[in-house]
Write a structure and sequence with these properties.
single chain, 245 residues, eight-stranded mixed beta sheet, 33% helix, two-stranded antiparallel ribbon
């Protein structure tokens, strides 16, 4: 990905350190044309997958939704809301610059077995291994879903991201002057930098959260957000933010 990707999304908002960070308008009406378009496959069309795909499509990236039934009419609304997007089978979806897995934990390993990833493909894990009733994280996923996906696919370019907040914040991350943080964890520096740029482009404050071992921390952070939002009555219009001085 070229350095112009971040430049094209930058709005010159100061991050408190004298640095301009990108802020992207929400609700772009049509797909923008861009020279540095990233080929992104999103596996899953639930709230998170559908929202991420739509936002990136609006920003001018080439988006494909990887699904079991690519020709089904049930995907028509998703495609209508995502300019230029298409649906493909899960195996074909693996042939992209970036593949985002946004499915329930119960389906994650089956998806990984079907993916035929390109050598340079970045695999992004947005899955949370939640137990029923938000009782905790499934111990079968230890140390993290990300580690399981890395083992299953054999990829070293695996990154944990887009799991620590809800789809509503992905659709509209605007909270006034503060930007919600999006932690990103992975061992491959180049892959992580690409995912950080994609997070920034959506309007998040992309944060390097460390190596692949930190993926389990992001899963616990996600559980805390879900409990605060839904069990403790705060609602989904809340977000984590990192304050700097």
């Amino acid at each position: 990905m070229s350095s112009s990707f971040r430049d094209q999304n930058a709005a010159g908002v100061d991050d408190g350190e004298g640095n301009a960070r990108p802020v992207t308008p929400v609700g772009v009406a049509q797909r923008e044309e861009r020279e540095d378009s990233v080929d992104i496959s999103v596996i899953g069309t639930g709230n998170v997958g559908r929202t991420l795909g739509r936002r990136w499509a609006e920003l001018g990236h080439a988006v494909r939704f990887g699904v079991r039934d690519p020709g089904a009419a049930r995907h028509d609304d998703t495609l209508a809301a995502s300019p230029g997007a298409t649906t493909v089978g899960v195996a074909e979806a693996g042939r992209a610059d970036v593949v985002v897995v946004a499915v329930p934990w119960a389906a994650a390993e089956a998806v990984a077995r079907q993916l035929a990833l390109g050598e340079a493909t970045i695999l992004v894990d947005a899955v949370n291994p939640l137990l029923p009733g938000l009782a905790g994280l499934d111990p079968a996923a230890a140390p993290s879903v990300t580690a399981h996906l890395a083992t299953r696919t054999g990829s070293s370019r695996v990154v944990k991201a887009f799991n620590t907040t809800g789809a509503g914040n992905m659709a509209d991350p605007g909270y006034g002057a503060a930007r919600p943080v999006m932690p990103v964890a992975g061992d491959d520096a180049e892959a992580k930098a690409t995912v950080l740029e994609l997070a920034d482009a959506l309007g998040f404050d992309g944060l390097d959260a460390g190596g692949l071992g930190a993926a389990q921390d992001l899963e616990h952070l996600a559980l805390a957000w879900i409990r605060l939002a839904y069990q403790l009555g705060n609602g989904p219009n809340i977000a984590w933010s990192l304050l700097r001085r």
